[in-house]
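User: Predict structure, ligand zinc ion.
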Amino acid sequence: MRALFAIFGLWLAAAPSAAQTSAALILAEERMDRVRQLVEAGAMPRKALDDARDEVAEERDNAILRATLYARIELERMTPDRNRDMIAAAERQVNRRKAKLAEAEKLVELQARGRDTLDPLRADVARAEQVHELALGRARLFDELASMAAAENELDQPAGEPRDGTRIAERFAGEGAVPSAAKLRAVEAAFEKHFGQTLPVSARGATELHRSMGFDHTGRMDIGVKPDSKEGAWLRRLLETMRVPYLAFHGAVAGQSTAAHIHIGPPSNKIKRAD
Ligand SMILES: [Zn+2]
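Assistant: Predicted complex:
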């Protein structure tokens, strides 16, 4: 969990403020309009318009990253689409900056430009690559959540039966009902008191992700612990004592997202489609 928070910290440290990014996009668009007029009037070279277009594209990608990678939105509100947009925006920024560097290197070869002018462009590429890495890291966390949700979605089989020979769910029915908010708070407080760290909640209640998969996770809570770990075993004993229903999902294939977690509450309800 600590590594996860470290990543969150990095996102926030690297994040441009919301106001800056949108102001930058407006300025870039205004500049592009002015440049277009000048190019059409023959007062500026065509290349200037290409550069202005690049700047607008760069600021649009910054806006996408601001809404996904840098935003303080929780992973639970990410969707596969937003995830893809985020990665694509980060990739475009890397490619755009690499193209700029390559162009400058050609001018250096032609001795039309000093070699020392390449350093800031190389730094730009390195920064974009770092952002891309962050985006990939976040996407991996999202994949982990998605596989947890997928494991729950596949639960329409008898409890305890292996799925694909890899994933096993165990069910404790308890009192059956969706636990009250007060009960969930008590579970969180007890875990924190016992382990001296917060309960690693990966999904609290209904999330975009669960909804997109067609089920209603309202009142349920997913905890990112392996059911057989020290924390997992302790949590299960606590839930059993409190008669709170839970589902324990054991790991899946090594090297892939494990999807191991404990789902607190009865299984989710399927969302009834209007059609
Ligand atoms: Zn769940």
